[in-house]
């Protein structure tokens, strides 16, 4: 019987690698840029998911100057701080964030029609 190779199943987790990749702190966190329809032709652009160590008010000030629109920083209980801008500024905001070096292009998700 010593010639028989008996394999005893060990505790193998097939999802261990996938879980380890997801646990990377901030490695694949996205910045979400959305547009919301207000009334008629009016719309609102929201930016969420920026890192907390950035000054939201300074980013907002530069965005408002660059795109000639008004905006505000809103504190949301679930999402944290969210930047709101008047008008459909999705492409402008994404190009601004990449050119300023705040976010890489592949970490930006643009939502909306």
Automatic annotation (TrEMBL):
GO terms for molecular function: mRNA binding; translation initiation factor activity. Gene3D superfamilies: SUI1-like domain. Residues 31-101 form the SUI1 domain. GO terms for biological process: regulation of translation. Pfam families: SUI1. Keywords: Protein biosynthesis, Translation regulation. InterPro entries: SUI1 (IPR001950), SUI1_dom_sf (IPR036877), SUI1_euk (IPR005874). Probably involved in translation. Belongs to the SUI1 family. This is SUI1 domain-containing protein.
């Amino acid at each position: 019987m010593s010639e028989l190779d008996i394999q005893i199943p060990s505790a193998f987790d097939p999802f261990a690698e996938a879980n380890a990749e997801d646990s990377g702190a901030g490695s694949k966190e996205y910045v979400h840029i959305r547009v919301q329809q207000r009334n008629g032709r009016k719309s609102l652009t929201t930016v969420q998911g920026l890192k907390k160590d950035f000054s939201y008010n300074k980013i907002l000030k530069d965005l408002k100057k660059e795109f000639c629109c008004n905006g505000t920083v809103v504190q949301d209980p679930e999402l944290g701080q969210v930047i709101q801008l008047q008008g459909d500024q999705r492409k402008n905001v994404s190009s601004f964030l990449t050119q300023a070096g705040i976010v890489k292009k592949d970490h930006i998700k643009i939502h909306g029609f």
